Amino acid sequence: MADRLGATEREAALSELDGWEPVEGRDAIAKSFRFKTFNEAFGFMARVALRAEKLNHHPEWSNVYNRVDVTLSTHDAGGLTELDVKLAKSMDAYAKG
Amino acid sequence: MADRLGATEREAALSELDGWEPVEGRDAIAKSFRFKTFNEAFGFMARVALRAEKLNHHPEWSNVYNRVDVTLSTHDAGGLTELDVKLAKSMDAYAKG
Asked: Which domains, ranges and CATH numbers included, belong to chain B?
């Protein structure tokens, strides 16, 4: 199982990510992605879904038309782990197309 | 553009759907779908996405692992229309596999 990140690791991880923010009151990170259309937003979600299934680590996310709001945390570990950082990095890459 | 449903049409439409509930404080309907796995949940979402794109009418939805929570309303019409009923019926059918 992935270990929960310590404060230093957490800070280092966040600095490598693009625009992810800590979530108030939870050991989690969140980001809102905007696309041009639903087609692009769901295309992004499909890529993330395949990656999530491969990592066996899944996002909490919502979608309204061209917007995808994502929260990442590792339930089994009770907070942020390397798995969240991996998935966040993939999402940043996919969002760039 | 689709017209907002009147009270009678709305009631008739809801009675044809499987487990959709009115949303408090909004002219919208909502349903929570549960699947066995993320694979099944996202498979459902992919089918709904294709249908939504064809109808040019999109859900507000969120997903956490095997759960998909959906809210339907027609923004342009300021409430529930025949488009929401069509999309809801398709979702009910897809959820049955």
From this structure: 7-95 (3.30.1360.20)
pTM of the model: 0.96
pLDDT tens, position by position, B62-86? 999 999 999 999 999 999 999 999 9
Q: Is B55 helix (H, G, I), strand (E, B) or coil?
A: helix
Can you tell me the distance from the alpha carbon of A61 to that of B74, in angstroms, rounded to the nearest whole number? Answer: 21
- B49 contact residues in A (CB cutoff 8 A): 38, 42
Mean pLDDT, to the nearest integer, of A48-70?
98
The one-character DSSP state at B3 is: P
DSSP B38: H
Q: Do the beta carbons of residue A57 and residue A78 sit within 8 Å? A: no
Burial B39-69 (b: 16+ CB within 10 A, else e): ebbbebbeebbebbeeeebbbbbbbbbbebb
Record: contact B38-A52, CB cut-off 8 A: yes
Which among A48, A46, A64 is positioned nearest to B43, based on CA atoms?
A46
Q: What is the ipTM of this complex?
A: 0.95
Residue A65 neighbours by CB distance under 10 Å? 16
Three-state DSSP class for B46? Answer: helix
Closest CA to B64 of A69, A14, A55: A69
Contact call for A42 and B49, based on CB within 8 A: yes
